[in-house]
Every structure is written in C-alpha cells, then in structure tokens.
Design brief:
6 helices, 207 residues, single chain, 3-stranded antiparallel sheet, SHC Adaptor Protein, 5-stranded antiparallel sheet, 32% helix, 2 domains, alpha+beta
C-alpha cells in the first residue's frame, strides 16, 4: 500500500496566532568575527568562496545548536548563512537576499514561533522519521515558487503579514514605520520572494 505525506511550513500564521504565548526564546550568544568556530568558517567558505566574516550569532534551543553567520561576498555584497550543527558537522544554508526593513521583519516572523509543537528543522529529518515508522521504498519531492503581490501564490503570505504586523508593533518588536515600509516593499509590482518549501514523502506500508 502506497501512502503519501504533504507538509508546508507557514511561519506567519503560526506567529500571528501564538505571539503572546511564545515558548522560551533560544539562548543566543553574539560572536565577533574572530570567535566564529573553524567548522562554521569552513562551511561558510565552501558555500561562499572568499567570504569576509563580520560576526555571528550562536543559538541553542531544545538541545540543537544553530549559527547565523554574517559577512560579505568577494564583490562586497552582504551575505548571511544559517547553519545547523549535527554531530559536530556544520551544515550551511544561505538566506534569501531581501532588503530591509522587510528582511528584518521576515526573519523575525520566520524565527519567532518557537512553540514546542513547531519544529522548523523537521524537514531535515523527514526520511529518517518515516523510515522509523516502518515505511519502505521512501521517496521525497519538493516544490517552491516565486511569490508576488496580486497573485494567489503570494497574497496568502502578504495578507498573513498584514495581520501579524500590528501584533508585532503592539508587542514592541517592530515600529509602525518599519511595518509601513515593509508592506510598501511587498506591494511593489517587481517584488518577488521564494516560497516556503512544500515537501511530499511517499513510501510503502508494510503488509
């Protein structure tokens, strides 16, 4: 018997619903460029050759360790890398090149919903998780698209942000000026954003 799972990560709606009941924040340590671990440096240079380091944040949550490494590319443009540390190995993922203030509010929304039921890194463990459930012949497929204003594929997110942003202002984590400018950014006809990753996993259920 062949079964499938489809899942989508939507941080804005979870953020808007749970801002007041946020789980404890991760333990964050600011690091100067000279204090970035060698493993993080190596992973960053592999992803962005010639990267010049500006600093980093080390975040620990639920026994997991993450690094946000900031710096510039060889051409002088800014770059930020998210890294997950598993068994001493640093795995790096580049962030989307978004302009402030939307970039900062987007990061806040994407990282703020830390309820115990929400695991932002679950996708990394999909195959292992379903293998442990006994499924065989596992396969996985992902899908992303460009989210633009005025299109259904983008408006679901931008409308969710319109509902979340006032709560951010009320909570004191953003100013009304930032919110107004960010909403103006996402309403520009030339604005485009990479969608959340949609993942489907298929497998065979044992007889």
């Amino acid at each position: 018997m062949r079964i499938a799972l489809w899942c989508q990560t939507s941080a804005a709606l979870a953020f808007a619903a749970g801002l007041a009941a946020r789980a404890p924040a991760p333990v964050v340590t600011e690091l100067a460029a000279a204090d970035i671990p060698e493993g993080a440096r190596a992973a960053a240079l592999e992803a962005v050759p010639g990267m010049q380091f500006a600093g980093a944040e080390r975040k620990e949550r639920g026994g997991m360790v993450f690094y946000d490494v900031e710096g510039t590319r060889a051409d002088g443009s800014e770059v930020e890398l998210d890294m997950l540390v598993e068994d001493g190995v640093f795995e790096g993922f580049a962030r989307q090149p978004l302009d402030p203030p939307y970039r900062d509010l987007h990061a806040l929304v994407a990282n703020a919903s830390l309820n115990e039921w929400r695991d932002p890194d679950y996708g990394l463990r999909l195959l292992d998780s379903f293998g442990r459930l006994g499924l065989r012949d596992l396969d996985v497929a992902g899908h992303v698209w460009a989210m633009r204003p005025g299109e259904p594929g983008g408006d679901w997110w931008f409308l969710a942000l319109e509902r979340a942003f006032p709560r951010m202002v009320a909570a004191g984590v953003a100013t009304q000026e930032q919110v107004d400018e960010a909403l103006a950014q996402v309403r520009r006809p030339d604005f485009a954003l990479l969608s959340p990753v949609h993942v489907s996993v298929t497998g065979t259920k044992p007889d």
